[in-house]
């Protein structure tokens, strides 16, 4: 599980525009660009939390074995978020937002 303050992500975007490219894969950047205003910041915040939660579920954290670019998310045909890389089988992702926070939870059924 991970939680992030949306205002913190907003400030990072303003100070370091390359932050977006550091966190989001090319496919995720396309989704980010299709949104506007607050929805962009919420999307990036949710994906940041999702990737942190995935890395925690793997037991490695971000840095050594996994980078933000190694983890990719998408939405299924119903709009449910899912992890598509580095693997998706047995991975369950939930992302939520409030006015101030974005949070994500990842459950990995089995690590090969």
Automatic annotation (TrEMBL):
EC number assigned by the record: 2.7.8.7
Reactions catalysed according to its record: apo-[ACP] + CoA = holo-[ACP] + adenosine 3',5'-bisphosphate + H(+)
Residues noted as binding Mg(2+) in the record, renumbered to the chain: 2, 52
Position of the signal peptide: none
UniProt-listed SUPFAM superfamilies: 4'-phosphopantetheinyl transferase
Cofactor: Mg(2+)
Gene3D superfamilies, per database record: 4'-phosphopantetheinyl transferase domain (3.90.470.20)
InterPro entries attached to this UniProt entry: 4-PPantetheinyl_Trfase_dom, 4-PPantetheinyl_Trfase_dom_sf, ACPS, Ppantetheine-prot_Trfase_dom
Location (main, coarse): cytoplasm
Keywords assigned: Cytoplasm, Fatty acid biosynthesis, Fatty acid metabolism, Lipid biosynthesis, Lipid metabolism, Magnesium, Metal-binding, Transferase
EC class (word): transferase
Subcellular location: Cytoplasm
Annotated ranges, domain 4'-phosphopantetheinyl transferase: 2-104
Pfam family, one: ACPS
Family in the record: Belongs to the P-Pant transferase superfamily. AcpS family.
Task performed by this protein: Transfers the 4'-phosphopantetheine moiety from coenzyme A to a Ser of acyl-carrier-protein.
Name of this protein: Holo-[acyl-carrier-protein] synthase
